[in-house]
Amino acid sequence: MEERINEQVNTMPGLNAPAPEFTANTTQGKINFPADYKGKWVILFSHPADFTPVCTSEFMTFASLEEKFNKANCELVGLSIDGLHSHIAWLRTIKEKIEYKGMKNVEVKFPLIDDISMNVSRKYGMIQPDESATQAVRAVFFIDPKGILRAMIYYPQSLGRNFDEIYRALIALQVSDEFGVATPADWQPGDDVIVSPASTCSAAQARFDEKDLDCKDWFFCTKKLDKDTILKKIIKK
Q: Which of 21, 51, 151, 206 is deepest in the core (most CB within 10 A)?
């Protein structure tokens, strides 16, 4: 019986598969996910509990960056295994009492899901029993405008997330879709991007003659993609 419960708790969504669907109450009203966000990217993220310090620092950071994410056609949706009244009281406390790294009077406007039933947490594999059977880990899910789960990152409860990396990953996914390229290690907008390896010997040889490519070998070719081109395609003014 215990083994079956753990299997249910540890259900993991699949990359490049439809994001698990759910309906939930949030601090901004009821949502149908991901249907309500069709045409937009969404970052769905979980935190272990309201009224905890690491989670508070993260929510203040996400709220302060919300406009930046919105300009990249991305909405934010938070979750923890707490009830709606707890969420509301915690967010009010953040706005009225907490100052951190120059952030104060921070109002969290994006939805925070009431998941006291653990329904959503289980669907997304947010419950990791070896970490906690009653709290979600710090998970981040990147869902594209078609409702497809494109990337996910899991952190333990003790480790606060790097928000520069979350934003970088969002932009990199959009660049890959928009320009048909891959992004190398530590890529930032304006850095060279990677062109997929050629599928035939003749095509691979021809790559060395293409003026806009820098080929180190048949399988490793890069090209320039300037930052302004990326910003014009992806970022709203």
A: 151
